[in-house]
Amino acid sequence: MAESTPQQGAKPGELLPGTLDMLILKTLIRGPMHGYAVVEYIQQTSEDVLRVEEGALYPALHRLELRGLLAAEWGVSENNRRAKYYKLTAAGRRQLEEEAARWNRMSAAISRIMQPA
């Protein structure tokens, strides 16, 4: 998933810049998940509007883990494959709260501007 602005020709399903980390954190509030489950949850919950490519997901998971927002451990997936499971840390929960508040402020402001005059 290459993040771009509408002027650069954003494609349907492409995430807005800066939202991937927030969506990962929000997804993992449900409990530990492996990367593919994170992708599936975002896609299904958004009713196939949002799509996250592996090339964007795994670097984001690694970055969040390095920042201490996620912890990871190896386990076995539903189909008996070795998979890395990610879960939120306390710092990740705090970061999610901050990002959600910022998102709500920004989206409300944009919605007010987009209302018919």
According to DSSP, the number of beta strands is 3
Could you estimate the helical fraction of the residues in percent?
Answer: 40-55%
Order of helical and strand elements: HEHHEEH
* Strands side by side in the biggest sheet: 1-3-2
Q: What overall geometry do the principal axes of the alpha carbons give?
A: globular
How many helical stretches?
4
Strand content: 5-15%
Low-confidence stretches: 1-9
- How would you state the average pLDDT, rounded? 89
- Taking the alpha carbons of the first and last residues, their distance comes to 35 Å
- Strand-pairing-aware structural class: alpha+beta
Which sheet architecture does the biggest sheet show? 3 strands, antiparallel
Radius of gyration: 15 Å
Describe the structure using short key phrases.
4 helices, 117 residues
What can you tell me about this protein's structure?
With 117 residues, the protein is of the alpha+beta class. 50% of the residues lie in helices and 14% in strands. The protein is built from 4 helices and 3 strands, in the order αβααββα. Strand 2 (70-76) and strand 3 form a beta hairpin. 18% of the residues are buried.
